[in-house]
Amino acid sequence: MSDNTPANSDDEESSVPWISLASLGFATPFIFYNLAKGEPDKTYLKWAIAYGAAALLTVCSFGVLAPLLLFPWIGGSIHLFLIRDGHLPGKGKAISDSVKSMIESTTASADKDPVAEAKRLRTKARRTVASDPLLAKKMGIGRPDLDDRDADDGGLIDVNNAPAQAVETLPGISAQTAKDIVAHREAHGPFADADELIMSVSVNPKFEAQMREYTVFIP
C-alpha cells in the first residue's frame, strides 16, 4: 500500500523543537498553546502557561530574572524533543500542525489588513525604484494610467511621468496643481523628491504627509 504522507512531513516534525531553541524559548509557550487546542486534557495548556510565565517574567524583570528563560528555552525544547520522539504523550505531527496553525493565523491576519498590505507594496515598489529605475519605469510603477503595466505598487503615483489626471489623485493635489506640476517638470526637468515638489508648487500643508506616502519620483 502506498504511503500518502507528504515527503517533507518528517523534516517538519524534526525541525519543530529547533524552533524553540532558535527563538530562545519565546516560541515554546505558543507551540504548547496550539497543541492544547481541541485537547480535552489540559496538560499542554498548563505547560503553555508555565513556559509563558517564565518568558514573561524574564522580559518584565529587564533581565534580572534571566535564568528563568532557561526553563522555556532549554527545558521546553527538551520537552518538545521528547514529545516528538514518542517518549511523552503527544505526536510530532501535532507539533508541526500547531506551528503551521500559528503561521497561517499570522498570514490570515495580514491578509485581512488591506492598509498594511498596500503599505508593504509601496515599500517594495520604492525599493525597485531605488535599485533599478529603468525596470521600475518598464513595470509601470506609479502609473495607474497604463493599461498594460506589470506592477502592484499600493497606489503610488510617479510624479515625474504620470499625466495630470493621475497626479491629481494624490492627497492635497487639486486639478490645477496637477497641471502646474506637469508644466513645471516639462520646463525644468524631473523632480528629485517630495521636498522639491513642495517648494515648486502649491501643496496643501494638511495633506503633506499623506502626499509623501503616495509619491514616487522616477527619473
TrEMBL record:
<dbReference type="InterPro" id="IPR010994">
    <property type="entry name" value="RuvA_2-like"/>
</dbReference>
<feature type="transmembrane region" description="Helical">
    <location>
        <begin position="16"/>
        <end position="36"/>
    </location>
</feature>
<keyword id="KW-0812">Transmembrane</keyword>
<keyword id="KW-0238">DNA-binding</keyword>
<dbReference type="GO" id="GO:0003677">
    <property type="term" value="F:DNA binding"/>
</dbReference>
<keyword id="KW-0472">Membrane</keyword>
<dbReference type="Pfam" id="PF12836">
    <property type="entry name" value="HHH_3"/>
</dbReference>
<feature type="transmembrane region" description="Helical">
    <location>
        <begin position="48"/>
        <end position="74"/>
    </location>
</feature>
<keyword id="KW-1133">Transmembrane helix</keyword>
<protein>
    <submittedName>
        <fullName>ComEA family DNA-binding protein</fullName>
    </submittedName>
</protein>
